[in-house]
Amino acid sequence: MRRTPALIVGGGPAGAAAAITLARAGTPHLLVERQRVIGDALCGGFLSWRTVAQVRALGVEPGGHRVTRLRMITPRAVSEAALPEPAIGLSRHRLDTILLTQAEAVGARIERGVSVRAVEQDGVRLAGGDVLLPDALFLATGKHDLRGTPERGDAGEDPALGLRVRLAAAPGLSALVDDAIELHLFDRGYAGLVLQEDGSANLCMAVRRSRLRAAGTAAALLAELGREVPRLAERLAFMAGESHVDAVANVPYGWRAAPAALFRLGDQAGVIPSLAGEGMGIALASGVSAAQSYIAGGAAAAPDWQRVFTRRIGMPIAVAGGVRALAEGWARGALPRLAHPALVRLIARATRVA
């Protein structure tokens, strides 16, 4: 049994941002990360101009693939508009690596290969049976809920599934995508695509379960989507030879956390529809602001911080939810015609975290 003033569970962008902020202030803490070697998380890959500024404020230069345009693609139409400011495509492996490296460089205390089993009345129980006794708990476990903590909202009768396939770097893929972030729209779902720092890409999809169930398998669904959206099929032709479909089930898009006696960060604070490209922005903003709140007010500051942060992300999540409803429904065919540069800039700015 060990005591720690502040315990951060999860070493993704939210947890790393909190650790960097606490370490810079000289505030004792411990970050535990279940992976010994940093992988490539399912979600992420796009950093908006505002998120890039957040990364730099943490003392890190992200690099990455420069992105200046939004391209919307439906079975019958393609439209493009300039982003308000340049963004970047960056793999989660690269982002998580540089943020944790920075956390260690500024003095964060990090233990890797430590898996948390549950939050219990007598402390935080690890997979090996040991117990940590924190004064404050920062929950940064992404889309994965931790037993013993408040559950996130119901994902609905036809929940969204997050699917990801890897596309191999190739001149043909670079020529197709170039400096754009692409949004492919289809019945009951959409797919986002952006090149990463090495020229490869993650094709990340949010698809209703009913659509996958009707197709039967993930491979059959991809083939079906390729027939439905021919330009998507052109991209899928670059799937890496050994690539498989990664998935996360029942994503509660639109959910936001209620105040509690812990700091809930990133997707544990609120889940913005992925087409907004602001998941990493919420993760970093929550990690930094929660740590600042803890530094100023201790563990007792958690409920008030959560209440304020929930309000802060309310407008971006609501706007993104409205666009998602259009993208998945009958109006998706009209979206490319509505992609006026001024409107794109307005929506892009409205879905950023202030």
What order do the helices and strands come in, and which of them pair?
Blueprint: E1 2-9, H1 13-24, E2 30-33, E3 46-47, H2 49-57, E4 65-73, E5 78-89, H3 92-105, E6 110-112, E7 116-120, E8 123-126, E9 131-139, E10 160-167, H4 171-177, E11 180-186, E12 189-195, E13 201-208, H5 209-215, H6 218-228, H7 230-236, E14 246-251, E15 263-264, H8 279-297, H9 302-312, H10 314-328, H11 341-350
Parallel strand pairs: 1-2, 1-9, 2-6, 4-11, 9-15
Antiparallel strand pairs: 3-5, 4-5, 7-8, 8-9, 10-13, 10-14, 11-12, 12-13
Helix pairs in contact: 1-3, 1-8, 2-8, 5-6, 6-7, 8-9
Describe the structure.
With 354 residues, the chain is α/β, with parallel strands linked by helices. It has two domains: 2-65 and 88-153 and 252-350, 3-Layer(bba) Sandwich (FAD/NAD(P)-binding domain); 160-250, D-Amino Acid Oxidase, Chain A, domain 2 (2-Layer Sandwich), CATH 3.30.9.100. It is 34% helix and 27% strand. It is built from eleven helices and 15 strands. The protein has helices at 13-24, 49-57, 92-105, 171-177, 209-215, 218-228, 230-236, 279-297, 302-312, 314-328, 341-350, and strands at 2-9, 30-33, 46-47, 65-73, 78-89, 110-112, 116-120, 123-126, 131-139, 160-167, 180-186, 189-195, 201-208, 246-251, 263-264. The chain has an eight-stranded mixed sheet. A hairpin with a 2-residue loop joins strand 11 (180-186) and strand 12 (189-195). Helix 1 (13-24) packs parallel to helix 8 and helix 5 crosses helix 6 (218-228).
